[in-house]
Design goal:
The complex is a heterodimer of chains A (226) and B (261). In chain A, helix 3 runs antiparallel to helix 4 and helix 4 packs parallel to helix 5. A six-stranded mixed sheet of chain A has the order 5-6-7-3-8-9, with helices on both faces. Chain A has a three-stranded antiparallel sheet with strand order 2-1-4. The longest helix of chain A is centred in the C-terminal third of the chain and has 14 residues. Chain A is built from eight helices and nine strands. Chain A has one domain: Rossmann fold (3-Layer(aba) Sandwich). The model of chain A has no long low-confidence stretch (mean pLDDT 86). In chain A, strand 1 and strand 2 form a beta hairpin. Helix content of chain A is 34%, strand content 26%. With 226 residues, chain A is an alpha/beta fold. With 261 residues, chain B is mainly alpha-helical. Chain B has one domain. Helices cover 78% and strands 2% of the residues of chain B. Chain B has a two-stranded antiparallel sheet with strand order 1-2. The longest helix of chain B is centred in the middle third of the chain and has 37 residues. The chains are: A alpha/beta (226), B mainly alpha (261). At the A-B interface, helix 2 of A face helix 1 and helix 4 of B.
Chain lengths: 226, 261
């Protein structure tokens, strides 16, 4: 098992971020993490990345607490910014110096496929900056890719390119867990769908099973969350 | 080492505008100093020396703001790429400190050279040893005993303020600390220099020159001072400042690692 959350609860003072959640992440899956705003998606992803510690329960990645194996994780947060002076070349240089698993050839291919402009980030649009961040993240050869809302604020055409790039990076020994509100565009990408509501797991199903039952991820989402 | 090299490069790319601006301001200070043409060599020397001291203090403040921009990086979440990397926390702190100290050293050497010119204009013809002290050892002493601990303080305070989300009331205390530290260190540095700088082998001697300006008795009126100078500074100050800087960097690095999750 690549990663595991075992009966995890996360409290923020009196507020509950996640409640008694158990989830296994095997190798080689693309998992869609869905839920309305405030359902606990970002909390779950940050726990997996070791950016938060659980109030109760255990989180492990590759059998270790996430902080100990952070070099084997990629976390792309929703609010992460990049230095405004940094262009794609600078970003590649920075990443190759900081992350031993960064692959420059793959990064160049991603810049090309995501159509990232060569100008500095301060002169890029929001969507272009997101694509640059995604190229930086996906160019690493990690075991687990944790992507929090990579499609947020992105136009339809760019979403397509991003999803194709994410699929293009999928490897049999790595997993991707991706939270998104763009269910209709992304659902073809998912092997598995995990649905959260108010910090609790309400659905954990293989996407293939849903399709066999003639249900789309979007219709299941609307049905479960009412 | 690759990590440190990359972080130094990042610091250079991020702060080069500040660095070039500060080093470029040496031209402005030179112009201001050269424009002072008061009657009387003593007045001219005193005013020019005062301006150079102010320039050094401004340099410390500018460099404090330069390293303090870490606050903006954290606020805008720009530091996330650094935070999640496997590079140890202390290297992130050391790289910022090393770059700022390097810029400060170049700036201080420039001011030291300007000071040498000011003295030569006042008729003090310095020997090679004194010139080296003015241009190299004196600036290095100021950097080690004043700038290094001040910048380490700023880094620690910025990380502390961001890690613990300070209230408005605590911010007042932080600002007082931020402002008070360089002032106290500046006083400490000047005081230390006053007590610990050796007599210079000059004709008529810098100490004599200052004493004469202040109307105090001189040690070797009109004669060459020949006292042997073992070193320009009091080593206790250097050791103390380096230890203080090391402690502050250690604490800042621990806070950085806490922020990593």
């Amino acid at each position: 098992m690549l990663a595991m959350l075992d009966d995890v609860t996360k409290l923020y003072g009196k507020n509950c971020g996640l409640s008694n959640l158990t989830l296994d992440i095997p190798e080689g899956q693309v998992i869609g993490l869905l839920g309305v705003n405030g359902s606990g998606k970002t909390t779950l992803l940050k726990l997996l990345a070791g950016l938060l510690l659980p109030t109760r329960g255990q989180v492990s990645v590759l059998g270790e607490p996430p902080r100990r194996v952070r070099s084997k994780l990629v976390f792309l947060g929703e609010t992460d910014a990049i230095y405004r002076w940094m262009g794609p070349t600078d970003a590649g240089y920075l990443m190759s110096g900081l992350y031993p698993d960064f692959c420059p050839q793959r990064y160049l291919a991603l810049l090309d496929s995501l159509q990232v402009p060569t100008r500095r980030a301060g002169a890029m649009s929001k969507g272009e900056r997101v694509r640059l961040r995604l190229a930086m993240a996906l160019a690493r050869e990690a075991a687990l890719y944790i992507l929090d809302e990579p499609l947020g604020g992105i136009d339809l055409a760019a979403r397509e390119r991003i999803l194709q790039s994410i699929v293009g990076q999928w490897r049999a020994d790595a997993s991707i867990i991706l939270s998104t509100h763009a269910i209709a565009e992304a659902e073809g990408l998912f092997d598995r769908v995990v649905l959260l509501k108010q910090g609790s797991l309400v659905l954990d199903a293989l996407a293939e099973e849903l399709r066999e039952r003639g249900e789309s991820v979007k219709s299941t989402f609307l049905e479960v969350l009412g | 080492m690759k990590g440190l090299h990359t972080l130094l490069w990042r610091e250079y790319r991020s702060s080069r505008g500040w660095a070039i601006g500060l080093i470029g301001s040496l031209g402005l200070w030179t112009w201001i100093v050269s424009m002072i043409n008061n009657e009387g060599v003593e007045n001219r020397l005193a005013l020019r020396s005062l301006i150079i001291t102010v320039a050094f203090a401004i340099g410390v403040i500018v460099l404090s703001f330069m390293v303090g921009r870490l606050h903006t990086e954290i606020k805008h979440d720009e530091h996330r790429t650094l935070l999640l990397s496997p590079i140890p926390g202390y290297l992130h702190i050391v790289s910022r400190l090393v770059f700022a100290v390097g810029v400060g050293l170049i700036y201080a050497i420039g001011l030291g050279t300007l000071t040498w010119w000011v003295f030569s204009q006042a008729g003090a013809h310095l020997g090679a040893s004194s010139i080296m002290q003015l241009v190299a050892a004196f600036p290095a002493f100021g950097i080690v005993t004043l700038l290094m601990p001040t910048l380490a303080w700023v880094l620690l305070l910025v990380l502390f303020a961001n890690a613990y989300r300070l209230s408005h009331l605590t911010w007042i205390a932080v600002i007082v600390m931020c402002a008070g530290t360089p002032v106290s260190l500046l006083y400490r540095g000047i005081n230390g220099l006053d007590h610990h700088l050796p007599v210079w082998t000059t004709a008529p001697g810098i100490t004599d020159l200052f004493n004469r300006l202040a109307g105090m008795p001189t040690q070797g009126e009109g004669s060459m001072l020949t006292m042997a100078v073992p070193g320009v500074v009091h080593y206790g100050d250097i050791v103390g400042a380096v230890l203080l800087t090391g402690l502050l960097v250690f604490l800042a690095a621990r806070l950085w690692e806490e922020m990593e999750g």
